[in-house]
Design a protein that fits this description.
The complex is a heterodimer of chains A (378) and B (88). Chain A is an alpha/beta fold and 378 residues long. Chain A has ten helices and 19 strands. In chain A, the strands form four sheets. Chain A has an eight-stranded mixed β-sheet with strand order 5-6-4-14-15-16-13-17. In chain A, strands 8-2-1-12-19-18 form a six-stranded mixed β-sheet. In chain A, a hairpin with a 5-residue loop joins β15 and β16. Helix content of chain B is 8%, strand content 31%. In chain B, strands 1, 2, 3, 4, 5, 6 and 7 form a seven-stranded mixed β-sheet that branches. Classes of the chains: A alpha/beta (378), B mainly beta (88). At the A-B interface, loops of A face loops of B.
Chain lengths: 378, 88
Amino acid sequence: MTRVVIVGAGIVGAACAYYCARAGLDVTVLERQAVAAGTTGAGEGNILLSDKAPGPELTLARRSTELWLELAETLGVQSLELDRKGGVVVATSAAALTALTAFAAGQTADGVPSEALDPAALLAAEPHLATDLAGGRYYPQDLQVQPMLAAARLLAASGATVRLGCEVYGPQIDGGGITGVRTSTGPVAADHVVNAAGTWGGALSERFGAPVPVLPRRGFVLVTEPLPPLIRHKVYTADYVANVASDDAGLQTSSVIEGTRAGTVLIGASRERVGFDRTVSLPAVRNLAARAVRVFPVLAQMNLMRVYAGFRPYCPDHLPLIGADERVPGLLHACGHEGAGIGLAPATGELIAGLVTGAASTVDPAPFSPSRLVGAPA
Amino acid sequence: MTEFSFDGRPIRYESGQSIGAALLASGIRSLRRTRRTGASRGLFCGIGVCFDCLVTIDGVANERACLRSATPGLAVTTQTGTGHDELA
């Protein structure tokens, strides 16, 4: 039986484990810390089509959305806390609304439906929104899961051997190809190794002598005290899309706001390239809070309970790395999904399983091939 | 006067004591009821992190009893719900 070692027990590693095991492979997952200890546990669990422009990432996201719905059937909606809440994108100005409308037209042509909301329709959809917004759009296909729960359920359902507290030091190589990995708890034999180390995938790739550029892009999430259900959809401002696509290293913020089952409201999204610095930035927090209040004035009277930080795995061209590394036979990468890892995980896992077994895949893996970034400056 | 009230009952406190500490010293451990099942909650971390010891003070909900200093005449009451139930 072909042995696959997956490094990383975040959502992408868990999905790779699930689809590789389903394809009949012998799967072992090695994780330095704990399940969902990295970026998976620091986000909001978004599965979005609304923020993606037509192109390879949207194709992957569409397939992934299908697979998430299939997983909810198989594993249970409750066990993933999958919520088909839909997304509402709001425009704070006429110019932003024009850009949003044009963006949505391109998406519609690519199979992502959305519906224009005038100010009255916006308030009908989200009664606590500011009353002076220019308009917005409703995206019925946007979903949310509880990401830590989803990673744990996928791992458990895979039946893979999972070793936590196991750090991978590098490959064992014989005759030019990988035969296993060296770890803090001894060697593990493998025919294929999948780098699913997320934001730490760059560092791991160096240990394999096959560096790929994955950089941390810090984000904060603000958590309010538990509230009655005030916010029904995932709500964000149209400038979020431009921020995601930007290459700027400085602080950028847009408003991404949603309620959770527990009653807390989560407020994002900031982006900064400051390395792995976890220090809470008061300017970033203030900026996020002010923007959230601009969209939902009711939030001005609420307390914040917590702020947490996470590091998105940023690739210079904003596409994930999914596929074989030609420099080290047997090594595959499945990392660099930036802020879309939860959404893109199942389709990534399916692609990796297909690449290992040679089975035909639903999505063309070529645009995600790591070879496009080999030698690229990080 | 070194008293405030909790659900109408006078609570004596020492200067500098938090509301949570004074209530605990008076044998009162239940400060709020949980949103869904109505279970009792009180001081847990005692340092402002856990948000378990929420009380209503002079009509303002979601105050942490462990962080607020006791002052004369405060009307502290057991909190039920989110404190924002009028918005639901």
